[in-house]
Amino acid sequence: MSKSKPSGSSRYEMLFIVPNNFTEDEAKSIVAKVEGIVTENGATIVFSEFWGKKKLAYIIKQNHYGYYSLCEFDIDRDALTKIDRVLRLSNEVLRHQIISIPAVTDAERLAIKEKQTQASKSDKKEEKPNSKEKISKVVDKKEDKKEDKKESSKAELKDLDQKLEGIITAKDLL
Domain range holding 47? Predict the structure, then answer.
């Protein structure tokens, strides 16, 4: 039995960034050109999504922003290296990454997106209490601290008074 992977077509996902030097319309035409390169090499595009302009995590070639695009396609592994080489040499693509993924149907993809949006909405609701709640929590914390200080200072005074009484009434000091 062979340990190598069979040479059939596999599903891949490619995320690439077009630099901010271009306008959004030019970026969309570059995305179409990249998708053309993918199809010319024998791939069939299953899903494509243009994410638009986003801030980069770090500066790449003096660019702070870039246009992100996601593309899923089926292709043979041998042809994949050609696409990778062409994109590396291209001046119109800042960065790209191609990964192997399991095949997902459109219905499964929609279900995943819905779950992600619901999760993000619930996270936002939990993170953002209204301003009245924030103010009341801050005020309560300050009042608790004041009460704790008063109680601790009263306890300290009582302890000091008892110690002084003990010292004054002590007979072995004289």
Answer: 10-105
Claim to verify: residue 129 and residue 100 sit in the same structural domain: no
**148 and 89 in a common domain:** no
Per-residue pLDDT reduced to its tens digit, 36-69: 999 999 889 998 999 999 999 999 999 999 999 9
What's the structural domain count of the chain? 2
User: Please, which contacts does 80-89 make with residues 24 or more away whose CB atoms are closer than 8 Å?
Assistant: 80/12, 82/41, 83/14, 83/37, 83/38, 83/41, 83/43, 86/37, 87/16, 87/34, 87/37
Strand order in the sheet with 63-75: 44-60, 63-75, 10-19, 95-100
pLDDT exceeds 50 at position 1: no
Beta strands 10-19; 63-75: pairing state: antiparallel
**pTM score > 0.85 for this model?**
no
